[in-house]
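Lecture 7 notes: from sequence to structure.

We start with a single chain of 150 residues. Read the sequence below before looking at the structure.
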Amino acid sequence: MADWKASCHPDILIMLAYWEGKRRGRTMPSRDDIDPPELVKFLPYISIIDVVKDARRFVYRLVGTMEVEIRGYDPTGKSVADGYFASSADAAMANYQKVCDSREPFYEQDAFQAVDRWINEANLFMPLSDDGATVNKVMVFSINRDLYQP
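Now the structure, written as tokens:
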């Protein structure tokens, strides 16, 4: 992880430190450990994705207001395969799967063509777990590097 830390946006590091602080010695925090009033500045850029045991695999539970604005639609309730905002559905699904398999945060910079514009994002995927072993949610902090102004 250290390679990307030197060049990423400082708010990505703040979110990573927040996630790490909520672990309290565990592999990963639970959703209940995340306290929205502590993240007010960042909430518009945060999404929570459920990890489900059916064909949908990953489902948008909550999508921040700036994420909805940048996308031009609200994917809440849709599977990532149907509501992804990335270079492809496969690429989006692979990011979530990587976090589930590793049970560690994953950082990526993604540049892709949306229907009407070029998107240049930085994303921090952070696993959450109710039992401390199995990822059941993924919290994502996304920065559109061309528009981000918290």
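Residues 10-23 form the longest helix (14 residues). Keep this in mind for problem set 3.
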